[in-house]
Design goal:
4-stranded mixed beta sheet, 9 strands, about 25% helix, alpha/beta, 3-stranded antiparallel beta sheet
Amino acid sequence: MRFAIAQLFTPAEQPPDTALLYFSGHGLRKSKGGVQEGFLATSDVNSDMGFYGLSLQWLRRILQESQVNEQIIILDCCYSGELLNFSEADPRDTNNKKARCFLTACHDFEVSFEEIDQQHSVFTTTLLKGLEPPQSDKWVTNYTLVHLLNQERNLLPQRPVFWSSGQPINLTRRKIQQSIQVSRTSKLGICPYKGLRYFNYIKEDAEFFYGRTALTDELLEKVRSGNFLAVLGASGSGKSSVVRAGLLYQLKLGERLSGSDVFAAPR
């Protein structure tokens, strides 16, 4: 399994545009020197011999070094949230080119649950529900999938954790079979340029706010890892817009950073 993951995300030749890793099984954790470490329990696990499986610390390092443009990691096992503990190896994109979607069944201190007399766990069952939408021309993306998790999180016995960055990643869709006429609302009468006014944290402003995805991701990561954030820049450089239509709007949606929708936006 280790070799297969390394080949997928860090191949010797040209990397693929998109790579998906889905793991469903057991998760283990051990304490070494007072530090908790999580593992994916592979088939050759032998805790008596000191082998716990695939280290999540190692997986983070692989993702950090990977040149794959779209990375999708879904871990459905106990303690899987440790993947998102970025302190040792931060799998962010320093070149602001990659899109990443990390979905884990629970926090690093939680166990995940299976449904009685069902084929899948509660987490995978929810994911499959989101990946099998009614027939539509719209794509299911990592952000729409996270939106479903947010809607159903109170129905789950554990709390899924996620982190997404970059542009949306198209996952699946079902095309409408019959021929239909698509009606589009013209926006020719709307001027997206605001002059000296800032873009606010409302949908009407955010849909016209472009070009700051990478910076918004960086601000989200600063919020995730600390409790203070200062945004400095010259007058008119777009500080208020990126904080409001970028950072605060994404926090309010709760689709990029797990639990961010509970933050209160300023008046």
